[in-house]
UniProtKB/TrEMBL annotation:
InterPro entries: PilZ_domain (IPR009875). Residues 39-98 form the PilZ domain. This is PilZ domain-containing protein. It holds the Pfam family PilZ.
Amino acid sequence: MDQEPTGFEEKRTSLRVDMEAERVKLHWISKSGESHDDSAVCIDLARKGVLFDYCKAFDVGELVAMTFNEGTEKQNTIKGQVCRCTKSNDQSYHIALQLL
């Protein structure tokens, strides 16, 4: 019988799609006004949010555009606001975006 770990309650009511570590393109404007583009790994996608892995931390509240399938006819860009950023290991962070 599968049980949720003790103390954990899933709050998400919509379906979550495991992206199987799909590479995505990120775009954001830093606090100093500089435009940045880089790649990241999308972990999962839900109706209201997305979780990705990136080598640097983002501040809660930052706005980020994420492009899937860049340069193909299936290219699609979504925009979100960072709502959580946690260190996943010594080299990366898990960043959650609330979609706008």
